[in-house]
Amino acid sequence: MIKQTFLFIAMTAQVVCAQTKSKITATDLTRIKLVGGIELAPDGQRAVYTLTTIEPNPDQKEEYDYKTHIYLTGLKPGDTKALTRGPESARQATWSPDGKWIAFARTVKAKSQIFIMSLDGGEAWQLTNSTYGASNPIWSPDGKRIAFTGGVTMAQMLTDSLLNPAKGGPSWSLEKPGFTNNNFIKVDKKVKANPDGSLAEIRAYLNKDVEDKKAKVITRLNFQGEATTEPDITFSHLYVIDVVEGATPKPLTRGYASYVAANWLPNGQGLLAVSDRDSLKHPDREQDNAIFFIAADGSGKKTLVLGEEGKSYGAPEISADGKQLAFLVSPSEGVNFSQIGLAALNGATASGIQLVTFDRAAGNLVWTTISGSAKGKKAATSEVIYFTASSNGGAPLYRLDPATRQVTQLTDFETGVTGFDIVGNRVVLARTEVANPSELYVTDETAKAQTKLSNHNDWVAQRQLSFPQKRTYKNSLGQTVDYWIMKPTVFEANKKYPLLLNMHGGPTAMWGPGEQSMWHEFQYMCAQGYGIVYANPRGSGGYGINFQRANIKDWGTGPAEDVLAAESDAAKEAWVDTSRQVITGGSYAGYLTAWIVGHDNRFKAAFAQRGVYDLTTFLGEGNAWRLIPNYFAYPWSADAKVLETNSPYTFVQNIKTPLLIKHGENDLRTGPIQSEMMYKSLKILGRPVEYVRMPGATHELSRTGNVRQRIDRILRIYEFFERYIGPGSQLVK
After folding, report:
1. pTM for this structure?
2. Which domain of life is it from (predicted)?
3. Are 283 and 258 contacting, i.e. CB atoms less than 8 angstroms apart?
4. What are the tens digits of pLDDT across the range 196-227?
5. What distance in Å separates the CA atoms of residue 91 and residue 14, rounded to the nearest whole number?
């Protein structure tokens, strides 16, 4: 009797606890804090990391700002503290070799600069004051210097005597019609600008119009940025500076090229960095990247380490002893992802290249020396590589043994490792999961027992959540397609609920329980009483190269088969009201939304976001235009018909489903004219369609865009669907 009483009390307590939890709201978006930028101290006893938060704008009501600041943890639960604060964000924190200092980047007068902070206390002090900005600090092995990058415009290059001693133009052609060389860029300042004067004076006048931003003259191929057109290239150059107040930085690279992903060699004599393989090709046309040795003495010496026609090499990571090099390599064109490569390294020379057999897109390679006990031995140590890769709905942590080229998966598919660092046998990682969007954990080299260090998103414990259930489907190609079904958050077995088919973009993106970006949207829609089904159809990343290439010349029919099969199975659930089904997706999935409603009438309403609808015009208006030749063909080729047959716009007259179309006004990745064409055509046809333009928004609206617009977006999805499947939907039918 006593046991039964205790059991009753415990069960009652659980029910009361569940009832006191609230549902996820739209503005809970502003409460999500994201952990990143993890770096362990050299002794492995502490770690720095960044925390990105959304804060109310003090000067503009209902507006918010993103803030990123640096935190320190002593690797014990709850032992975290902010090292930076204030209105300007801080990022890219990195330890000095002796563990006494950190260098980091902070914006000063609209430009990033490098700061130094002592971990013994005291204010940070500014190391750089570069005209070109300074970011990505990297300490030299002896701790006396820091290498960093600065962004230099074409106009600045023409007058910079250090980066361009001859003050001439690039060796590659600027491709200005009517000129056989680049001499036209040398402007004679003695010539007066005069619209009614000589040809030279007219040219001076036109040049002044460009300087005064009255005209943009475009001759380059990749002229579209994310938010505006970019007639000129900006180059990323490497510098080095002594870690002394008042020191002057010295350029390590020169000329009309960019250098990224730099890493010091252990001897401090130089760095490995990535640049265009062929310096004689226009950077917009050169798709091959190579790894170069850059001398640290400022001589400008550059030596090719790894490079090959038709391939792109990147992400050079050097073992602690400097004898081994890990890198990523992939074909430069087509539908591909990078493979891990290994090579013996001797200064600026790499040899004995071997590729690792691993059918996923690896990233974030980190070398560490682990003790033999981790490999079943007592005394020996060995150099191994840790990395992450999106896979099967998660982002596991993996370990690679370079000696055997064997890869071991350390964490599961139910979570995602969004960042990590390792020193010796200690790993600190950021993890996302359904129960918590982002927290910091510490573990050992096996990553089996993970200890939670931070409490940044503990507020989620007071929210009711919906947890996805995984299922699989065998498609017409014989491939296994993963999909997940989420019930409404507040679920009653005898009730019927609407079903939302939500689709990912890319098309090489991947969703799952270990994917972070959709956490809030999924939970919000479930909190509003919707069930959700989402899938990784053919063409998705995370399932190997053959799966990723399975939608070449087939963006519509095949992927639609896969997502609709998932939807059909979910619709068989007893709780689904099959008369209330809706569909949405963004980017490529905006395309797929329009494709499906042009071929299928089962959905009561649809929301197509920042999509591509006509593949021929997309070639011209989107900066992601290389998707056209990679997946299909050029419009002038013999195979151009494939663009028409794969364009949702071709079937616009078949769309009868009420459609909401959204696009960012400054979205140059897919181009807003795509949505204008779709909207205007449906309006002419007299179909139920509404068009929402987001002023100032880019393609990244739903992830890192204006917070108020992000809230608007998710509310607009819900409100539009409610018109057609909500309690009062009969009023608009």
Report:
1. 0.92
2. Bacteria
3. yes
4. 999 999 999 999 999 899 999 988 888 888 88
5. 42
